[in-house]
Amino acid sequence: KNLAMNQQENDLYAEAETPLQGVRKVLEQRDKEATSVVRKAALNVFIVTGISQNGSFDIITAFGMNIQMINRLVGLRHRRPSLTQLLELYVIVISSALIISITDEIFDQIDTSELLGSMAGGVAGSIAKTFLSSSVNGAMNDYLTLRIGKLTMKYLELGSKAYKKNKKKIRKEARRSALKELPAVAKSGLEQVASA
After folding, report:
1. Contact present, 193 and 50 (Cβ < 8 Å)
2. What is the torsional sign of CA 77, 78, 79, 80?
3. For 93, how many CA atoms within 13 A lie in the half-sphere containing its CB?
4. 3-21, pLDDT tens digit by residue?
5. For the segment 116-155, what is each residue's pLDDT rounded down to a tens digit?
6. What is the pTM of this model?
7. Are 156 and 85 in contact (CB under 8 A)?
8. How far apart are the C-alpha atoms of 51 and 42, rounded to whole Å?
9. Taking Cα atoms as reference points, which of 181, 159, 152 lies closest to residue 68?
């Protein structure tokens, strides 16, 4: 198939020794850009939902940011998926938004005073409880955004049929990859929140 390229990609392709190497360089560059888009979206979701103390706001915000991330990832591919394929990607986001809602409710049920021990009382305990709750909430949403990004990248790379055929394996890889990247993104988010 023809590979639609922008000027930077044309330059990368032209520098390669063979056409195959050129295509590989272009696809590697797109993968780096896609990974950067996913990490930035995950960081933004972590910060916004970590600071927010409103579950409904978190769901709407994460949903919107994930849709925006998918649209950016689609744009990097220089070819628009069919409406059906785009709707399939959006279903992934909607199901993740529901997971965010459920995890928010579950976390609200956890008694964090047991985790904080003697610090649980007073103003310090209240601040610590809020910080812990916000950090965990942000990290859960961060993980889901990373996972959605990885699933979207794979979906766009393979196409609908191959994605569906290998769905279980792809989900497992996305889960593993998201968990691997989560600590770095969460650390960066906590540093940005602390410095604000």
Report:
1. yes
2. positive
3. 20
4. 677 777 778 778 888 888 8
5. 455 455 555 555 566 666 777 788 888 889 999 999 898 8
6. 0.78
7. no
8. 14
9. 152
DSSP for the chain, written as a single string: ------HHHHHHHHHSSSHHHHHHHHHHHHHHHHHHHHHHHHHHHHHHHHH---HHHHHHHHHHHHHHHHHHHHHHTTSPPPHHHHHHHHHHHHHHHHHHHHHHHHHHHS-THHHHGGGGSHHHHHHHHHHHHHHHHHHHHHHHHHHHHHHHHHHHHH-HHHHHHTHHHHHHHHHHHHHHHHHHHHHHHHHHHHH-
Query: Does the CA dihedral 167-80-41-94 come out positive or negative?
Result: negative
Tokens, residue 116: 């904080």
DSSP line for 141-189: HHHHHHHHHHHHHHHHHH-HHHHHHTHHHHHHHHHHHHHHHHHHHHHHH
Tens digit of each residue's pLDDT (9 = 90 or more) over 55-110: 778 888 888 999 999 999 988 876 678 888 888 888 877 777 677 667 666 655 65
